[in-house]
Amino acid sequence: MSDPTQPPVDPTNSKPADSGAPPATPAGPAYPDYPASATPAAPAYDQAPAYGQAPAYGQPPAYGQNPYGQQNPQDKFNVLSIISLVTSILGISLVGVITGHIGMSQIKKTGEKGRGLALGGLVVGYLGLALGLIAAIIFIAVFIGAATTGSNYYN
User: Fold this and answer.
1) H or E stretch at 144
2) Is pTM, for the whole model, over 0.90?
3) How many Å apart are CA 117 and CA 31, to the nearest integer?
4) Using the 8-state DSSP alphabet, how is residue 141 labeled?
5) I want to staple 88 with a disulfide (CB 3.0 to 4.6 A). Which of 14, 21, 124, 136 is the partner?
6) Tens digit of pLDDT at every position of the chain (155 positions)
7) Rounded distance, CA 118 to CA 90, Å?
């Protein structure tokens, strides 16, 4: 590379400079000078681009989207709705029903996602409670029936 502040060197002039330096040895082939690039340089990190000029380092995000693929705050799922569905499926129906109702009320206030999860947790939780209640009634009926006929069974 050459210093841009110096005048261009004429390759046909082989006279040494008047500075008293030894004569230069001939270099390789001379390359033509190319014009400066027409594309503007990217702005520095601490500088904003000029008015009306788009930044050279990427496309701006569309309206309503956060840059760099981040989620919007309203895209967050309600944690209690997830807990409601999971505990209802695992058979802990009472916890699923309670967390489902709390999750539904939080979703109304905050606008988070997860209404379907909370509703599913409520449905599965209430079904589990109903089946548990029916099973308990049947178990008690069988236990009472066995207790009343148990003493005469061996005679």
Assistant:
1) helix 115-149
2) no
3) 70
4) H
5) 124
6) 567 777 777 767 666 555 555 555 566 666 666 666 656 666 566 666 566 665 556 555 566 666 666 666 657 899 999 999 999 999 999 999 999 999 999 999 998 999 999 999 999 999 999 999 999 999 999 999 888 876 555 55
7) 15
